[in-house]
Amino acid sequence: MHALFYLLPLLPFAYPKSHINPHTARHLLKSNSPREVAAAAELISREDVQRHVRRSPSGHSERLVRRRKRSCAAKTSSVTATVSSTSAAQASSSAASSISAEAYTSSSVAATTSTTSANATSASSAAASSSSASLSGLSGLLAYLLPSSTSDEWTTATDASAALSFDAALKPLYAGKLPSTATAPDGTTAHVADYPAGIYGLSGSGFNFYTEGIHNGVDVSNASEVMFSYSVYFESDFAFNKGGKMPGLFGGTDLSSAKTCSGGRQDDRDACFSARLMFRTDGAGELYNYYPVSQYDGYCSTPPYSTCNPDYGDSIARGSFTWSTGSWTTVAQRLKLNDIGQANAEQELFVNGQSVISLSGLKIVPDDSTGTHIFGIMAQTFFGGSGSDWASPQDQKAYFKDWTLAVMS
């Protein structure tokens, strides 16, 4: 009985017609018993084993092949999906962070995107940015300068195929102090604004000029909606102190009235307007408006912080973005005039392609206006403020380039 027990594993080999599964025979090839190995080898070579394989064309072998195919297909699908999602993420990241194919260093807009009275949360603001960037059909730096679709435009940005020179684009209409041209820290050519220590106001620092910017079919005096953009580079150790003015747009009933809508002007305020930007302490950014009439409830409390000074301009959405130092920041301001008798004017600011402030329901054209127009660019930058406590705390510079003006409607 014991002998039979030990012989049981060998019974198939003693009866070669028993059609043992060949896979069992292959396992026995690894046996420590020379007899089992020899018997298994003999069995595998026999015709009945081959007949077993032929008899199962739709059996184990084909199932294994199908299983491998499904596995490979699943892996391929998984890899394709991963690559696609990765590519999409990279494309999205590239569109959001790169400004041009050149070595243009974009500021990471510390754009603490805030929720304004007419603006959405940072998430929807980012979505709006993506949407508006696609509207322009542009990419890189040009998408930052023109984040929305335009009908006519010009630019000094060298990324454009027909870029204008600074002199051709910015012929001064009125000038207090013109900027000089210099090499910016990144090696590009730019206008430079010097801010000497202890100086504030228009007379001794920065630059100050007005230009209509009539080029390439662009005539903003006949437009109801325009966009003005530029890039600025504050030195890496720039000290903002209490703040200063930055370029914007100006307009009014006539050029004479329009060009002086600043400096605490009170007379004939209905005859002019200006929409500039400002830097404040620690580089906090804002809109700085001189508008002719009272605005809707909530305009002067637009978050994160706003205040309307009856003697000077309106500080709107202060801190909605941060001017960077040691890198370029590209700003694009969209301004749409209201219809006479209606509060449907709009003002929006994009920083590095992202909408950070969006206002609607404004009134820039007075109800009794005989013709209020946008006249062009109010190219001003200086420290101030109206007192010495606003002065630049040290000798320092900022660089300006990529001047762009567009008619939207």
From TrEMBL:
- What InterPro entries does the database record attribute to this sequence? Polysacc_lyase_14
Signal peptide range in chain numbering: none
- Please state every residue range assigned to the domain named Polysaccharide lyase: 189-402
Pfam families named among the record's database cross-references: Polysacc_lyase_14
Q: Where is this region: Disordered?
A: 48-71
Q: What is this protein called?
A: Polysaccharide lyase 14 domain-containing protein
The organism is Tremella fuciformis
